[in-house]
Design a protein that fits this description.
alpha/beta, 2-enoyl-CoA Hydratase, Chain A, domain 1, disordered N terminus, Lyase 2-enoyl-coa Hydratase, Chain  A, domain 2, binds acetoacetyl-coenzyme A, 2 domains, 4-stranded mixed beta sheet, 6-stranded mixed beta sheet
């Protein structure tokens, strides 16, 4: 844990070499996203973005029950139109920062990932989950819709019909269903969740940082453009990597039959 971390910090950070573990820490409210928690998460993201020691981030929730049970309903209940819209935009900004962080971010989903919690997971680069995790976008049960990107990212990920089935029913789904639809890439026993997530993160952290950044950017840019444009972006990014030291090091290491030592230059 970082030296000045305090127990009631809303987003704990623990570094293990090049991997930072962020733990959303409001377990009594199932880590529901209120404004202070979102602000603290935004601060943590800004801190990680400029920390050259950190190459990969793992995001999880504290406590046994929840990753994040959604945006804070008690806080939202009396919002007016302008405040609600501002809250949605603020939440989307934080999640966009995750999606564009420049370092891979893995969600380790330890329990409920509902509403804003499911949206938070969708903004990460991929997710692995405990077999006990539960997923859903139950906003319509509250008379509203997802506001932190759920209508957009879920439909892009699992297709319009599957996304609308989730959004219109508001149902809560088990981990098997999330795996089947591709929301999570792997299910593990609950006690194995963090060890497995951290092991994957450590492995990714040995890869070329500039290549990871380029890969993320090209995949994301490709969501919204025709295939031919996406392929052009891929070729351009592939080419640019050949002026980096990481490319020289990666290919030299292969030919010399040794592990590569990437510096991110
Ligand atoms: N906001 C505020 N508080 C929440 C919360 C939320 N989203 N989810 C849970 N809590 C609180 C509960 O109020 C309760 O607090 P108290 O002990 O003070 O009463 C505590 O966390 C424990 O929750 P429960 O007693 O309800 O636990 P449970 O095991 O019986 O149920 C649950 C768990 C099914 C996740 C249930 O808590 C639940 O349905 N939560 C709400 C889920 C939801 O609707 N999320 C979407 C929110 S809207 C949204 O996210 C909008 C957006 O896109 C931005």
């Amino acid at each position: 844990m970082e030296p000045n971390a305090i127990a009631d910090d809303l987003v704990l950070r623990r570094d293990e070499g090049p991997v930072a573990l962020l733990t959303l820490n409001r377990p009594k409210a199932l880590n529901a996203l209120n404004q202070p928690l979102l602000q603290r998460l935004a601060e943590r993201l800004r801190e990680l973005a400029v920390d050259s020691n950190v190459r990969v981030v793992v995001l999880t929730g504290s406590g046994e029950k929840a990753f994040v049970a959604g945006a804070d309903i008690a806080e939202m209940a009396d919002y007016d139109v302008a405040t609600a819209q501002h809250f949605a935009l603020a939440g989307q900004n934080v999640l966009n920062h995750i999606a564009t962080l420049g370092k891979p971010m893995i969600a380790a989903v330890n329990g409920f990932a509902l509403g804003g919690g499911c949206e938070l997971m969708l903004a990460c680069d991929f997710a692995i989950a405990s077999q006990r995790a539960k997923f859903g976008l139950p906003e319509v049960t509250l008379g509203v819709i997802p506001g932190f990107g759920g209508t957009q990212r879920l439909a892009r990920l699992i297709g319009r019909h599957n996304a609308l089935r989730w959004i219109l029913t508001g149902d809560v789904h088990g981990a098997d269903e999330a795996l089947r639809l591709g929301l999570v890439t792997q299910l593990v026993e609950p006690e194995q969740l963090l060890p497995v997530a951290l092991e994957i993160a450590q492995r990714i952290a040995t890869r070329g940082p500039l290549a990871m950044l380029a890969a993320k950017q090209v995949v994301d840019q490709g969501w919204d453009v025709p295939l031919a444009d996406g392929l052009r972006k891929e070729a351009a990014a592939f080419g640019k990597l050949f002026r980096t030291q990481d490319q020289k090091e990666g290919m030299a290491a292969f030919m010399q039959k040794r592990p590569a030592k990437f510096t991110g230059n």
